[in-house]
Amino acid sequence: MRASLFITCVNDTLFPEAGRAAVAVLERLGVEVDFPLEQTCCGQMHFNTGYARETIPLVRRFARAFADSEVVVSPSASCVAMVRHHYRRVAALAGDAALAREVDALAPRVLELSELLVDRLGVEDVGARFPHRVTLHPSCHGLRLLELGERPLRLLRAVHGIDLVELPDATQCCGFGGTFSIKNADTSTAMLADKVRAILDTGAEICTATDSSCLMHIAGALARQRTGVRTMHLAEVLAAGAGPA
Fold first, then answer.
1. How far apart are CA 163 and CA 159, in angstroms?
2. d(CA 124, CA 118)
3. Exposure check for the chain: N or C terminus, fewer CB within 10 A?
């Protein structure tokens, strides 16, 4: 299989290690990964903030950049959800029938990393070794829009040496929500406090997730409180080690 990596803005700018880890996991499994240089932002921030028309050029660029991709994979559940669930609405807003056809053809081929691994490749054990106590925060977009379900957990359970612990009230939002955390800072902070308390209750060393944006929000609180708990993207956990001894 050949897969095109959609890195996303947050990962490209702030967390490139998530993208590198995703490539490492895929190449370990024999997937050939390419990186279309024309890609930029998927437009999620614009769309979610009410600037739907400003999203149109970004949808056009995305469709053009990945038009020839067999499959597009991304270490970001929220950006994949943007493409699969909202690009059709943007194309309709643009009144562009050609763009709508391009979106209809491309959107089903855009997958979050755990979807590609579990559903397309049929793999759960990716050969990772990570002897640490880990808990998973299922991000809202992955949980509610992509309906990732058990896929990330199935991948984590197969990691050799891991001590995977359940996160209390796991389905509760961390409070990030993009610009929500800025426009509604007090509410966001309260939600974040609940999430951090739940993470600390697990005794985990690492909190992982499928979205670097959620992890950025959580990591800030963990660091400010000097908890000693770190955050790592799911891809980084899966890229660790080299399997059983």
1. 9
2. 6
3. C
Query: CA Rg, the chain, in Å?
Result: 18
What's the distance, CA 210 to chain centroid? Answer: 4
Residues 6 and 41 sit within 8 Å (Cβ to Cβ) = no
Structural domain harbouring 210: 133-239
Of 99, 120, 141, the one marking the end of a domain is 120
Work out the burial of residue 242: count CB atoms within 10 Å of its CB; fewer than 13 is exposed, 13-18 middle, 19 or more buried: exposed
Same domain, 107 and 173: no
**Does residue 126 lie in a domain region?**
no
**What is the number of alpha carbons within 13 Å of residue 153 lying toward its C-beta?**
16
What is the Cα–Cα distance from 96 to 94, expressed in whole angstroms? Answer: 5
A 10 A CB-CB count for 72 gives 22
Position 202 in a domain: yes
Statement to judge: residues 170 and 100 lie in one domain: no
Sign of the torsion angle spanned by Cα atoms 45, 47, 52, 55: positive
Q: What's the pLDDT tens digit per position in 59-91? A: 999 999 999 999 999 999 999 999 999 999 999
Please state the domain count of the chain. Answer: 2
- Please report which residue ranges of the chain form alpha helices under DSSP H: 9-13, 16-28, 44-48, 52-65, 77-94, 97-106, 113-115, 140, 151-157, 180-183, 185-202, 212-224, 234-239
- Classify residue 196: in a domain, yes or no: yes
Q: What is the pTM for the complete model shown?
A: 0.93
- Do residues 166 and 199 make contact, with C-beta atoms less than 8 angstroms apart? no
The verdict on residue 221 lying in a domain is yes
* Band (242; pLDDT cuts 50, 70, 90): low
